[in-house]
Amino acid sequence: MWEVVQVPVGAYDCDVLVVGGGIVGLSTAYAVSRAAPGTRVTVLEKEPGPARHQTGRNSGVIHSGIYYRPGSLKARYAVRGAAEMVKFCAEYGIEHAVTGKLIVATERAELPRLHALVQRGRENGIPVRELGPAQITEYEPEVRGLAAIHVGTTGVCDFTGVARQLALASGADVRYGARVVRVDRRPERGVAVRTAAGDVVRARVLVNCAGLHCDELARLTGDEPGVRIVPFRGEYYELARPELVRGLVYPVPDPAFPFLGVHLTRGIDGGVHIGPNAVPALAREGYGWHVVRPRELAGTMAWPGSWAIARRHWRYGAGELRRSLSKRAFLAAVRRLLPAVEAEDLVRAPAGVRAQAVLRDGELVDDFLIKEGPRAVHVLNAPSPAATASLPIGREVARRALEMLAAVGGEGASAARP
After folding, report:
1. Residue 334 in 3-state DSSP?
2. Of residues 9, 7, 25, the one with CA closest to residue 17
């Protein structure tokens, strides 16, 4: 626990100011309040409610952590976070289910990668069971494959409901409709943030959990993030015959890419979502081809890493574009796993956008990325499985913010120290 030390109140509106009301930002606020009761936390979210972007537009899967490099933040936080997320949902009565999932190889070339996943799962402490074709149909009668693994700790939940509960349980002053337009940081004094409505919030420490806009907010603060967010849209269909799928079914991912491929997800509402693909978005919040924001698109195109990605992965990208523009091509990808599906079974569903951090040389940042500057903590890469891992991520960000607060403890409103 952290001890909060009360000192004379200065000109600060709060001790910790979190920008971003997605699940990571709200988890950070929750973690600060639990670690250091009495610390004043404000959350600014530009939307009228929580979890309107990555958190509320994903497939709702509680990931096991099987895909991630052993020892990485993604592996450690996903494995730990999955168990904590199930416990959190149970404690607060949030809809969830631990369903398990199948990862299915449909071609012989995928078998070595499937076996590598078995080994990776075991290294990450995840129970996995190897299946043959007959055993696949015991779990999923309509799914076909050469081999599969069953991962028992995967589940689904209502991540938007989790975000709402985190906001309530944190005790933070959560302000919606508060878009940040300016940041004035003075390392010797603190951070002042101005919103589009003209309100000013003064804090001793800033936490940047702005998701799709996190790199922009870092630069507003005066810190160079060293990465740019390149938005990738993931498009989904809903299955008109949900009885074709009992649970969660995934293809074997290609380790060269950070995307898992088109998969089948039965959600907590009983509906089955199919997707996503991964295509470049023409805006940070570009949920369709018709959403184009020239300034944001120009910023993406001006980053050298964007061109390096295009050169390196053009063949993969062409396939994703084809599946985006052609329902027939998308259907063919689904039929690899689910032969019984027909074109009329696929009904368009809302898309999501992944905030993917990209280095100048075109490398996709593979792990969660958290950086610090004077009086600021920046979460610069937190795509999937960040929702699953949000409780451990929030604790880590809170720890860093509280250490900063302790370091400037004699200067202002209230100080926190270990």
Report:
1. helix
2. 25
Report the SS3 class of residue 64: coil
In contact, 38 and 338? CB cutoff 8 Å: no
Exposed, middle or buried, 51 (CB in 10 Å: 0-12/13-18/19+)?
Answer: buried
Spatial separation of the C-alpha atoms in residues 190 and 252, rounded to whole Å: 48
**C-alpha to C-alpha distances, 233 to 285, 287, 289, 313, nearest whole angstrom:** 9, 6, 9, 16
Digit-coded pLDDT (tens) for 10-36:
589 999 999 999 999 999 999 999 999
Q: What is the DSSP string of 196-252?
A: TTS-EEEEEEEEE--GGGHHHHHHHHT---SEEEEEEEEEEEEES-GGG-SSEEEEP
Cα→Cα distances 84→50, 51, 91, 121, 169, Å: 21, 19, 10, 18, 16
DSSP character for 59? -
Rounded Cα–Cα distance for residues 417 and 404 (Å): 9
With contact defined as beta carbons under 8 Å apart, do 212 and 229 qualify? yes
pLDDT along the chain (418 residues), means of 10: 41 96 98 97 98 95 96 97 98 97 97 96 96 97 98 97 98 98 96 98 98 98 98 97 97 79 93 94 97 97 95 88 94 96 97 97 95 98 97 98 88 39
Token couple for 390 = 């949000």
Is 390:23 a contact under the CB 8 Å cutoff? yes
Neighbours of 178 (CB within 10 A): 20
Strand duo 376-381 + 200-208: pairing:
parallel
Instruction: Give me the residues paired with residue 169 across strands.
Output: none
Nearest to 134 by CA among 124, 143, 125: 143
Per DSSP, the three-state class of 366 is coil
**Tokens encoding 409:** 């403890």
CA distances from 130 to 250, 264, 281 (A): 14, 19, 37
Cβ proximity of 285 and 353 under 8 Å: yes
The three-state DSSP-derived secondary structure of 149-211 is EEECCCEEECHHHHHHHHHHHHCCEEEECCCEEEEEEECCCEEEEEECCCCEEEEEEEEECCH
Q: Extract the tokens encoding 46.
A: 């530009």
